[in-house]
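Build the 3D complex.
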Amino acid sequence: MTGSGLAWRGGGALAVLAVLAAFPLAVTNATVTTIGVDTLVFAAAAVAWNIFSGYSGYISLGHAVFFGAGAYTVGIAARAWQLAGGTVFVLLPLAGGVAAGLAVPLGLIALRVRRHTFVVITIAFFFIAQLTATNLSVTGGSSGILAPSPNWDAATFNDPFYYAALALLVATTAASWLIRGSRFGLQLRAIRDDEDRAAGLGVRPMPVKLAAFVVSAVVTGMAGGLWFYFIGQAIPQFAFDPLFDLSVVVMAFFGGLGTISGPLLGALVIEPAQQYLTLQYTNEYLSEILLGVLLAAVILGLPRGVIPTAADRIAAIRARRASRTADAGAAGRQPVAGARAQGAGR
Amino acid sequence: MLTAEAVSKAFGGVQALRDCTVAVEQGTIAGLIGPNGSGKTTLFNIMTGYERVDAGDVYLGGRRITNLAPQRVFALGIGRTFQLTRIFPRLTVLENMLVAARHGGDGRGLGPLARAGGRAHRRRAEELLEFTGIAGHAGALAGTLSYGQRKLLELSAVLVADPAIVLLDEPAGGVNPSLILHIAGRIRELNAAGTTFLIVEHNMDFVMELCGNVTVLDYGTVVAAGPPDAVRNDPRVLDAYLGIAEADDDAAAG
Amino acid sequence: MGRQIYEAIADGILGGGVYALMAVGLTLIFGVLDIINIAQGILVVLGAYLSYVLSVHLHIDLFVGLLVTVPAMFVIGVAIQWLFIRPLRGRDRTSMSLLAAYAVALIIEGALYRIFGPNYVVLNAPYITSSVHLFGFYLPDIYLYGFALAVACVAALYLMLYRTRFGRSVRATMQDQTAARLIGIDVNRVAAVTFGIGVAVTAVGGMMFGATSGGFNPNSGYDLISRLLAIIILGGLGSIGGALAAAVFMTTAEALVDIWSPDWAVVVFYAALVLVLTIRPAGLFGRAPVRAQ
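Done.
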């Protein structure tokens, strides 16, 4: 990443942040801001998912376990300690902690197997979690738990949730950025490309994978807790929803798996689109078909996602421009080597 | 220094290694040759922790390292390359170099969140890229390199951690003659500086020129071991490769 | 109590036979194409709906209807492989094919919802409610027919694999795709046909599922695919015998637990999977990882 590249990225990030922060001040339509909260929560979840699955290459279809665990943690704790209003937000780190506590044993089991089996075992975990929540009484069985209802001003009701979600998103994106540039992130990406070879170079696969797994679980748990408080209840089939993992996966792939901003872009595009479609066509089955079509289109047509593909195009244009000026210039100079890593995420 | 003692390994019905003992002296360049299927790569895999032994042991300077995981073997100072060159295609060439942990711990005190590659680490990586001759590609994605360049990168990435001994699996395989000379020259330089090598190769010239000591495997057992000239003329070795007993001719001649 | 246990075991074995058939299709696809066809669950449901349409609208007997649904599902399978799986390239191919299959599953599920709606439907036939009195137990006719059919299909599959030239190509591709290509095997054709076969068995599985489930709707696919996945992982990816053993084992275990607690019986299914994988990451009869990842 060159100096000017960093300035561009930093400036771009601040611009996006400014827009997101100002959004609820400019738009007061409750339906729209609800979609906004939803989008930000999913964006945080997508970035978190990417920290594990994107960087390590192990596709997890069970992150809903952590989402739901976070939701139920906030619900049970709020009920047990009689919390309400703004103090409920204090429970979010607890939700993250519970998710982390789950992630360690689950990760130790799941990360010992090959990638294929890993996906399936995450699915198994998902079903176990959903079934357990339906059967236990502390989680309210199939009727679930209700969240305490804050009595905030109806006009700005969504705002606290919005800004909490935004804060979570900012923190998660910062974490993703930090990890990607670090030694830890490099080892993860090496594992993604060739785990055995990475081991042969001294990388310890299990601790590295597990750490990423836990970090991603913590954020997902917090997102789940926030979402629970926002929509007001946690029911097993929605707290543990297979479409959650699917959406997160589509967002990450669409934007660019393994990049920092890819999942964020994916969420900002796909979640509002999904919500809009669900509202327009109350027949929700259409949105399911469209999601499937979108996923197929992304996988087949844009397999690396929007951001890496765009980065490649920009790099190709720059290289062409540079080689043209080099050709036009003195004869003895070498043209710029192609395929220079642009640092825009791969 | 590195010894495989009485190692046996079977895969299903195939006995890949049978009571095999190979010893590598410190500071030498040792060769390991044998027909296809004789167990050379299996021996490498066992020495570096990619396979478990059925019987026997592996020792590094007297310390038992049998069945240790690859990352622990690497931490003890043994590096290796693979028969089918393996690199990290989606990382840049420089990033490939920074994956290996330096012995003594890189960024100690800074922890895993340290920026990938401290300045010293980075400098050593760049030096090595210069040494092997691919420094011009440092920023390119490793997947865009040619076959020969990948071989050099694979070797460089192993060397960045200063291993005491390097196991090379067919370093000259599928590579043009001038590059082979280049690689051989680098190996000699590194050996002069103290690195021990164990090389598996089919290219006889390469082995005979470079190695001080050669071991020959056939069907998983050692059939000969010694200086290159002695091994070259050993009838058992000829038998292993050609499958015919030329013993009469050779006995008459020498 | 003992009687209940025997009944549970009988139920488990008979029911397991049908799951085995579907699981074999799934593990065969994995063995040859190295992908997990996560759409298998919804394809079973599709097979069930096809049988439903033939039965209710055209009054064709369920078993006779298979003569139509099996080839139809075969063609659908080949189409899916050709359109969605074959074009995938690159290092992440295995994850991407899984997601492509997931996409197909979503599309099919959405389409089924739109066509048939969310209401539960049932397959009806006289032999579904009748049963045979054997050894002091009542064994439902449909289970016996289904079990026999499943056994026949698995036997046919084995014959195909081990006695025909095509079967040899399949086994060669399973062992080493590159080597198979080098000796002249059209790997693409083998892949497409194998996928087709793996899906064709869901026609049979779908009919049986529809007849014995007591009601199904498009959402039933999730439960099905998770069970099938658990079975093939437990048995070892790519192992047909493993799929058979695992299917019977898991359905029997679930039936046994069901005696004590119906709520937790389903959890046993997945818990068994997790337990086995903790001890043997390759599954009961899994192949040792040939590929590094």
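Chain C has twelve helices and two strands.
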